[in-house]
């Protein structure tokens, strides 16, 4: 009887091991395929050089916190603001839409981006704040639905631009990406690991036809007082 019980336990342990191994293979394959599809599909729409990037009326600057969780300036934020200012000063865009999270009165990504861009010499009159860019999907779709832009340049790091441009293309938007300086893997490995899972979610969002959390009143780019 004891041997029979041990045999049953081993049998179920083998089933569990097979199940876990199969799940790991499926997860790994899903992560890899999602990552590579987005990387390859966006490759011809990303630019590192100002000379090569086409002109667009507006750029969408994707938000992030200006401070790291452990304190100190966030280089992702600083590099994006530098890239956006460079894009504007080079005459490659006329306007900047700064899109990010404004979840509380004490956390306001768009306002921090506006301040940083003004400090870099960008006129306040050409900066439009999108307070409902809670996710990359929201920021991209709101660029059309709220700000009326069918064609625009996205500003972020290359890995983020790949995903944002892919989302835009799948929603019939003509988007290009201008790559800000990246941060080394060693300095922020967690961000790059999270990106693998974010790319899987892109396909889930497309499957369920996910829309932005908020839409709202339309804004006409170019109507602000100079």
Structure description:
The protein is α/β, with parallel strands linked by helices and 226 residues long. It has a single domain, classed as 3-Layer(aba) Sandwich (Rossmann fold). Helices cover 48% and strands 15% of the residues. The chain is built from six helices and six strands, in the order αββαβαβαβαβα. A six-stranded parallel beta sheet has the order 1-6-5-2-3-4. α1 crosses α5 (158-170) and α1 (2-42) packs across α6. The longest helix has 41 residues, at 2-42. The protein starts with a helix and ends in a 19-residue tail after the last helix. 31% of the residues are buried.
Main features:
single chain; 226 residues; alpha/beta; Rossmann fold; six-stranded parallel beta sheet
Mind summarizing the main beta sheet?
Answer: 6 strands, parallel
General shape: elongated
Tally of separate helices: 6
Helix content: 40-55%
CATH architecture name: 3-Layer(aba) Sandwich
Brief sketch in words of this structure:
The protein is of the alpha/beta class and 226 residues long. It has helices spanning 2-42, 75-89, 109-119, 136-145, 158-170, 189-207; strands at 46-47, 56-62, 93-99, 127-130, 151-157, 174-180.
